[in-house]
Amino acid sequence: MMRSLTRISAVFFKELAQLRRDRMTFGMVIMIPLIQLILFGYAINTNVRDIPVAVVDQSQTALSRILIQIVEATTVVKVTERLTSVQEAEEAIRSARVRAAFILPDDLSQRIVRSPSVGLETPPSTDQETSRPVAQWIVDGSDTMIAGAIKSLRSMPLSELNRQPPNRSTATFEVALFFNPEQRTAINIVPGLVGIILTMTMIMFTSAAIVRERERGNMEMLINTPVRPMELMIGKIIPYIFIGLLQTVIILGLGHLLFNVPFGDRTLDLFIGTLLFIGASLSLGLVMSTIAKSQLQATQMTVFVLLPSILLSGFMFPYEGMPLIAQYIAEIFPATHFMRMIRGFVLRDATILDLHRDVLWMCGFFVLGMFVAALRFKKKLD
Amino acid sequence: MSGDAADIVVRAQGLVKKFKDFRAVDGLDLTIERGMIYGFLGPNGCGKTTAMRMLTGLLTPTEGTVEVLGLSVPKDAETLKYKIGYMTQAFSLYGDLTVLENLDFMATIYGMPAKQRKKRIGEVMERYSLTDLKNRFAGKMSGGQRQRLALATAVLHEPQLLFLDEPTSAVDPESRRHFWEQLFDLVEGGTSIVVTTHFMDEAERCHKIAIMEAGQKRADGAPKDLMAAMGANVVEIEGPNLRDIRRHLLGTDGIMAAAQLGARLRVLVKDEVPDPEGFLKAKPETDGATLIEKVRPNLEDVFVTATGEGRQ
């Protein structure tokens, strides 16, 4: 037992010394979270604004110009082109100069007068004339998020045209937004970014760990020593656990400073959860390292895990929106469980106990990964 | 274990290693006694490295049994690792670690307590002239320096038996001489050594050698005994047209081999020829020769008679 610990420490200090001299890797440890946080924190935004649109104003009245201004005032769209025909508008959408076109018909004034959204009168709902919309949007519907944003304009109130206050209709449902009432995307993205960056760096570092010994010719010497596979695995991952924790601190700390993302009060839960995720990612990396024949292959395998971790884990798209099979696949990846955990701890004040299923799964993944890696590591050349 | 068996450090019987259809080692029997340098001599690809790897437990034999220091290999290979040292053919220590860090890593891996570790590392650095190089990166050292470091790490845990796989292939002759002196110092201290080589002069320094070819042992014994028993006499011819003489002699009855060494032609004449010098002088091809004399055989002659076409 004592000997075992001594050997683990030998591997640990050796890895540390090598890591310290590997300026490139050491730089990545700090730069990857820093750059990605700043880039993604500012860039990723699911609240769509200022969509470029074209306007085809066939009525050319004061009313039509005011209507365009009201629509622009929502900041959802921004008029970048004024065209004369619908054909031109379609052409502009096809060539991606604009994402939508706003068509105002020549009988606009008549339509507006009768429209209930203006609130001049309340005509019977059976009246054919009144159920005609005021104007039309032609939308590039291929991007569902853009289409959704413009659809939200469909029933905008137009009482401002009549210099009346917008009618305060009673909502059917009351919606109370917990945890992120201002609906800022960064609140959701920054904690998730911890999961993505840890997946990337942890798996990338360890997937090269074993195969590097082989590529550099150290393996034959190493397997001639009494070191046991499990000792080698444990000694190799310990330095990266510290690196992972350091990266987490950088991302959450900077996220707090730059994007005002809360830390939450569950520091201990967050620490344990992050530790488990780091462990699970590292053990997955080690398993890959025992499979890969070269460092290049190890990197390719990293990408194979990284993509689903970004796309299926709930980092970018809601987990619940995926078909059941995709959800099952997503459950395999540690990142999916971690997304749930870190958002829970940081944003919703959840505890380890609230998320015990993810915690248990992560523990299991870590232990299994370590055993598989140790079993796959043969102290033989044949 | 009987007293006799205790003096045997390696015992292998019917050792076979197949890689797919290729028999890298093909029915090898070995008995290596304690306290000597035992050499595997053979060309590249003759199976000497494969044989050594089976002895250390790195490769599992396809057939046959191996017993090293009384332990059955590969079953007890992990216990054996504390008792043997191994120096790989290519430098396999960490190039991005310093001499001291490499030694410290290996000493710790072998479970040496901190105090003993420091003392022992100091000893080997002193003995192998590494003290001045201790903060040098292993990757930035010369071939000779690396080899000293590799030997220092291999003997760090004071193994009873040392395996050296072509230890001098990357070093200059001066370092090689020095290296062999160090090996004899180790033997004096009670270590047994198994070494592979393709250098004749190195093989000649071994107490005993096994000549390997195509995975098989062609001959074994002390170099001197092998020379005495090689079944041929060596005659050197001096004179003009040595290339012609060689061409004519090869293929003649009674001639085993002929090779030119500078201005002389070295001819191996079979033992069955009673007077080798007279036999060659009688040949019409050697008319122009200025000198024909019988010389002492060397290990290369043994190698030639034991392997290839010279084999009987």
What's the main sheet of chain A like? 4 strands, mixed
Residues in helix, % of chain B: 25-40%
DSSP summary: helix tally of chain B: 12
Taking strands numbered 1, 2, ... along the chain, how are they ordered across the largest sheet of chain A?
2-1-3-4
Structural class of chain B: alpha/beta
Largest sheet of chain B: 6 strands, mixed
Q: What multimeric state do the chains show? A: heterodimer
Question: Uncertain segments of chain A of ≥5 residues (pLDDT<50)?
Answer: none
Structure, described:
The complex is a heterodimer of chains A (382) and B (312). With 382 residues, chain A is an alpha/beta fold. Chain A has helices at 2-21, 23-43, 62-73, 86-94, 108-114, 144-151, 185-207, 209-215, 219-222, 229-259, 267-291, 295-311, 324-332, 334-347, 356-376; strands spanning 51-57, 77-83, 100-104, 136-139. In chain A, helix 3 links the parallel strand 1 (51-57) and strand 2 (77-83). The longest helix of chain A has 31 residues, at 229-259. Chain A is elongated, with a radius of gyration of 29 Å. The mean pLDDT of chain A is 86. With 312 residues, chain B is an alpha/beta fold. Chain B is built from twelve helices and 14 strands. In chain B, the strands form three sheets. A six-stranded mixed sheet of chain B has the order 6-7-8-3-9-10, sandwiched between helices. The chains are: A alpha/beta (382), B alpha/beta (312). Chains A and B meet through helix 1 and helix 9 of A and helix 4 of B.
